[in-house]
C-alpha cells in the first residue's frame, strides 16, 4: 500500500483548510448580518411556511445549518421564538444546507477552482485593511470562499487513489455488498464523521470526493448523506444541554425531524434512489448508477430531494412535533433556583455580535429575577414572623446567588471582549459591565431592606397605619422603576426611551424628600419612638437607593445610543 502517514496528515490538513474556509465564510456573513439576523428570525416566523423559508434563506446565506440551529436554540432560550416557530426555521435550515452541496458539486467538481480561489483571496485581502467593519467582514467572506475551494481541491489531490491502493478497494468491498446492512453501516459512518467534524457540509464534501474518486457508489454515498443529517443535529443538542427547557425541546425537535426523515427514506430506499436517479437523467445530469461523473451532482440532488420531501411531509405536523417533544422533554427549572444562568451557559457563539445578544438576554433575565427578589422583600412587610424567617433565608440565599451570577456574566463579557470588537460593541460591553453591577446592587439593597424588616420584627415594632401606607406607596413606585428598567433592557439599546425612567426616578426622589421632612417633624413631635423612626427611615432611604440603581441602568444603556 502506497498511502503513508504523511499522505494521511496532508488529507487531514486539506480537511482543515476546507473547514476553516467554511468557518470564515459563516462567521463573516454573521458579522455582516449582525442584529438583522435576529430581527429576521423574530419577524418572519409568524406561520410555519414563513419559518421554513426563513431557515432556508439564513442557512443558504451563512452556509451553516449548525449556526442557524444553534442561533434558533439561543432565540428560543431567550424567548424570542416559540417552539412551533423554531421547528419551522429548523426545517428550513435542513433545506438551506443543501445549497453547500450544490456549490461544491457544481463548482468544485465541474470547474477548476484552484486558480480562481487564489484570485478571490487576493481580492479579499485589501478589504481586511478597511476601516469599515462591514468591508472587513466581506473581505473575510471572500477569503473564506477561496479557502473552501482550495481545501476541496487539496482533498481531491490527497484522497487515496483506488487504482494505486487496491487494498482500500478490497476493504471497502467487504462492506458495500451487504444490501441494507451496507446502507446501515455507511449511515452510521456518516453520522459518526459529522459528530466528530461538527460540520455536515464538511462531511458532505468528503462524501462527494469519495464518490468522485470511485471509492463508493451512489447508493452507499446516499446512505452516508442520511447519516450526516442525523449527525448534524448533535451541535444544537450539545448547545442546549445547559440551556432552558424550551431550548432543549427545540434542539430535540431537530433530532426527531431528521430521524423521522431518515427512517422513512430508509424504508423506501431502493425506490427513492431509483426516483432520484430517474430525475437526474431527466434533468440531464446523467444516470448516477452507470455514470460515475454524474454521481456528485446526483448526490446533491438526492440530498435536496430528501430534505424537501421531509419538510413537505412534516410541515403540517409542526404542532404535533412540538407536542411530542414537550411530552418527552420535561421542565426541570425550579423557582428555588431563580438566579442561575439560562442563556450564556450555551457558551460563546461564533461572532461577538451573537455572543453579546446572548449576554443581553442573560442580563434581562438577571434583572427580572432581581425584581422578583425585591417583590419577595415587599411581601415581607406584612408577613407573620414565622413565615418571615423562612422567606428571609430564601432572600439571603438569592442574594448570594445574585453575586455568583454577576461574576459569571462579567467573566463571559470579559471573554467576549478578548475578540476583535467594533467601537459600538466595545461601548456595549462597557455599558453591560455597569448594568450588571447596578443590578447586583439592587439585590444587595433588597437584602438590606429584608434585614431592616427583620430588625423591626425582633424589636417587636409595629408601624402605625399611616407609616405602613407610606412605605407601601414608596415600594410600589420603586417596583415601577424596576419594571421600566427591565423593559428598557429588553429593547434594542439604540431605541431605548429614557423619559419614563427619569419621570419615575424623580417621583421616587420627591417622595423620599417628603418622607424625610415628615419623619423629622414626627420625631420632634414624638409621634413615634426613635427606634421605630430609625427602621422606618432606613427602609424608605434604601428604597430610594434602589431607584438610583435602576436609573443608572437606563443611563448606561443610553450611553450606547448617544455615542
Number of helices: 23
Q: Unreliable stretches, pLDDT < 50, 5 or more residues?
A: 333-337
Q: How much strand content do the residues show?
A: under 5%
Output the helix-strand order.
HHHHHHHHHHHHHHHHHHHHHHH
Task: Report what the structure shows.
The protein is an all-alpha fold. It folds into two domains: 5-328, no CATH class; 337-562, Methane Monooxygenase Hydroxylase, Chain G, domain 1, CATH 1.20.58. It has helices spanning 5-33, 35-43, 48-62, 65-78, 83-96, 98-110, 114-128, 133-158, 166-176, 180-197, 200-212, 218-231, 233-240, 245-267, 269-282, 295-314, 318-328, 352-380, 385-417, 423-458, 465-490, 499-524, 530-562. It is elongated, with a radius of gyration of 30 Å. It starts with a helix and ends with a helix.
Structure at a glance:
The chain is mainly alpha-helical and 563 residues long. The protein is built from 23 helices and no strands. Helix 4 (65-78) packs antiparallel against helix 14 (245-267) and helix 14 (245-267) packs across helix 16.
